[in-house]
Amino acid sequence: MGGAWVKRWSPQGKGHSRSLVGALKVYPAQSLESLTWTLPPSKSHAIRLMALGAQAEQTVTLTGMTNAGDDAISMRRCLSQMGVQFEDLDAGGAILPSTPNADFLPHELATAWRIHGVGPHGFKHPVSVLHAGNSGTALRILMALSTRFNRPVMLDGDASLRARPHDSMTTTMAELGVSCSFGHLEEGLPLLAEGPWTQTESMTIDVSTSSQPVTSWMLASPASPAPIDVVYQGTPVSKRHADLTLRLCKEFGAPFGDALPERLEPWIPQPQHENIAVPKDMSLASFGFLAAKVLNIPIRFDEMPSHEEGLGHEILLEQAGALGFTVDGNTLQSNKEGQNVTLDLCDSNDLITPVAAMMALGEGGQITGAAHAAYKESNRITKTLEILQQFGLTCSVKEDGLDVPGNQTLSTPQSLVLTHDDHRLQMTALVLALGCNDAVTIQGDTLHCVADPQAVARFVDAGVPIESFLYQPE
């Protein structure tokens, strides 16, 4: 049987009793004077670095992996299924004893992951399903990596990942002669892919809804059978993430220039250094910003990534004053000096829900450039409106974002707060619940573990009562 990461079906259904669902009961935060906030490692960096390290011909050690989220662990698990060996290291650099388990979980004391690369052609055909959990990034990269096998590979994900569109990848896979069999209508997973990637003169990559397809093919290019021209279709979104892939590939020796490659050809990844530090995840700092606004207390981040590693999410620091925050070093404090502000989230659409909540509680504003947020774990444009409404807040939906009135006041939801299997909706609801007058029940007791395993624990450790329990939907 699969482990806790397997969540194949939504608990909702028609014509039968609904299953019990995990939920959180969050009580108002009282007497908190300040809070220290530790950010987890960036899953965007970690997942890409694992794909590159696995295709190198030597070892690569990723440091800074304490409290890695489930998305990074899903990528590690799937690479392990393809014959890549991982070793866990403690804070002193010593190898931790392996603890065999069906889910290839890292050691609980691990601060670094050592990857024993197998080279571009060293992957073993997986004998079981490659389950990417909640990670769209891991899934799309694995889809591209699986094209090198001449036998079928089954790929799958959780309920929210099953409901997301994957046609930008499957269309390109078909161009390369890879046979794809998958579901239709509401679910595009599981996917059965049978390669190998055959020689062809060119491939077309749609970059209009996500940067993940171009990331996937750059990372899979070491095993390409021959040089191939690349044609990009559409206006690029999340360009900072594609630029990250380009930069990391070049650091591993890829024959790419300074722009997205118009030609892919075989190459052997060779890291410049054996130890690579994975930066913190700037996108998750948004929930610290929201906590400072809701609780009106200083939030101290123990470490912030550089602007270069912020992947567009450094807009939080650049616009902190306009959003009504004072930043002193790594300490953040809400103030009353914000203004109605317009933020373009074209390269940082993961921020849409917490930023909309900040705007509602502050001076308001407009979010633009986020049309591609509709293709995330949920349609984050419409679902952000829904989350805000459940807490007595409001906004209006625009074609590419939201218009958020300011100076609104939180109210306590009177029913279960729905989060639609989306961890960023759940974490936004968690922080908003801390500012309510009564307890709030939130759908999804472990959703935050996808990106930030400490999201609940940091408040519990500070004395906030939060309970996890099974909820019976009406």
The end-to-end distance, rounded to whole angstroms, is 29 Å
CATH fold assignment of the largest domain: UDP-n-acetylglucosamine1-carboxyvinyl-transferase, Chain
Can you summarize the main beta sheet? 4 strands, mixed
Mean pLDDT: 92
Task: Supply the CATH superfamily name of the largest domain.
Answer: Enolpyruvate transferase domain
Based on secondary structure, the structural category is alpha+beta
Q: What is the CATH domain class of the largest domain?
A: Alpha Beta
Total tally of structural domains: 2
Widest sheet: strand order? Answer: 2-14-16-15
Task: Explain what you see.
There is one protein chain. Helix content is 26%, strand content 19%. It has 13 helices and 22 strands. It is globular and about 60 Å long. It folds into 2 domains: 21-40 and 281-471, Alpha-beta prism (UDP-n-acetylglucosamine1-carboxyvinyl-transferase, Chain); 43-277, UDP-n-acetylglucosamine1-carboxyvinyl-transferase, Chain. The protein has helices at 43-54, 70-81, 136-145, 159-162, 167-175, 212-220, 239-251, 285-295, 315-318, 352-361, 380-390, 423-434, 457-461, and strands at residues 21-26, 35-37, 59-63, 85-89, 112-116, 130-131, 152-156, 179-182, 191-194, 202-206, 228-233, 263-264, 275-277, 299-301, 325-328, 331-334, 341-344, 365-368, 396-398, 401-404, 440-443, 466-471. Residues 1-16 have low confidence and may be disordered. A 4-stranded mixed sheet has the order 2-14-16-15, with helices on one face. Strands 4-5-3-13 form a 4-stranded mixed sheet, with helices on one face. Strands 6-7-9-8 form a 4-stranded mixed sheet. By secondary structure, it is α+β, with helices and mostly antiparallel strands. A hairpin with an 8-residue loop joins strand 8 and strand 9 (191-194).
